[in-house]
Amino acid sequence: MSRDMFLQIIKDLSDNYEFFTQRTDAFNRKGLSPTQKCTSVLRRLAYSFASNATDEYVRIGETTPNMLL
Predict the structure, then answer these.
(1) What domain of life (predicted)?
(2) For a tag site, which of 28, 43, 47, 68 has the least CB within 10 Å?
């Protein structure tokens, strides 16, 4: 997949789904970036990775990839 296409997918998801935006928590720490969330979803869909393999690759929590799909 080309970089431009990947960035367009991230932009479209961020514009249309609140879940794919980066948020801050109560301590003003940034959450996961849209890039991390999209990478996790695309890796799981493309390669049928188990969620824990994807979690380690993009440093994402255990339940987040399941919520993204």
Answers:
(1) Eukaryota
(2) 28
What are phi and psi for residue 30, nearest 5 degrees? -70, 145
Q: What is the pLDDT of residue 12?
A: 94
Q: Which amino acid does the sequence have at 17? A: Y
C-alpha distances (whole Å) from 11 to each of 23, 24, 34 are 15, 19, 8
What gap in Å lies between CA 29 and CA 9, rounded to an integer?
Answer: 25
Are the CB atoms for 22 and 34 separated by under 8 Å?
yes
**Residue 39 vs residues 12, 20, 26, 28, 54: alpha-carbon distances, Å:** 14, 11, 25, 24, 9
What's the rounded Cα separation, in Å, for the pair 57 and 43?
Answer: 10
